[in-house]
């Protein structure tokens, strides 16, 4: 997400299940996903406690934002590039990445993973 300007609320959420293999071997029973098998998708997100007792005051003599350039190294799931103010920002990313990598000497199309 790319947001320029003031925002009241930003709410981001993503759940990702990824399988990476060194060989392109796929089986007939793949493609079904039961999120109950993976606890990371069942747990409640940990939310920080709200700030209490903090008082602040702002005076914007020049209420404009000037940006000459932005160099973005990378943006991922459930992320935001935001220039401006926001009252509330919530983000939650759940990622289960399974890597099935074979050693170099066993990488032949005839072998199973």
From TrEMBL:
InterPro entries per record: Spore_germ_GerPE
One Pfam family here: GerPE
Protein name: Spore germination protein GerPE
Lineage: Bacteria, Bacillati, Bacillota, Bacilli, Bacillales
């Amino acid at each position: 997400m790319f947001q320029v300007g003031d925002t009241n609320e930003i709410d981001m959420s993503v759940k990702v299940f990824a399988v990476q293999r060194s060989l392109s071997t796929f089986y007939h029973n793949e493609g079904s996903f039961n999120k109950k098998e993976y606890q990371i998708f069942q747990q409640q997100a940990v939310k920080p406690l709200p700030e209490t007792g903090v008082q602040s005051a702002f005076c914007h003599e020049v209420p404009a934002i000037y940006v000459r350039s932005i160099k973005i190294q990378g943006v991922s799931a459930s992320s935001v590039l935001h220039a401006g103010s926001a009252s509330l920002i919530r983000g939650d990313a759940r990622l289960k990445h399974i890597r099935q990598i074979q050693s170099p000497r066993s990488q032949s199309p005839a072998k199973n993973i």
